[in-house]
Predict the structure.
Amino acid sequence: MPHRLPQGQDFGNGVISVKPFHAWSSPGTSHLTLSERRIVGGMLQRKISVVQIAVQLGRHRSTIHREIRRNF
């Protein structure tokens, strides 16, 4: 699984990382932090789709689905 890179990092091959970089997240982390869970809860109450939540948090949609199944 590729690790996260700082936002906007250019690799010289036309590919620029767009995922946010979180210093507290280690590569391959599949669990959400408490603050991310709170954000997910608020977005779910506003009827925002899981895909949009995943994009906003820079996480894969399956991670969001799994956390919802475990904790909501």
The radius of gyration is 13 Å. Helices lie at 34-45, 50-57, 61-71. The mean pLDDT is 77.
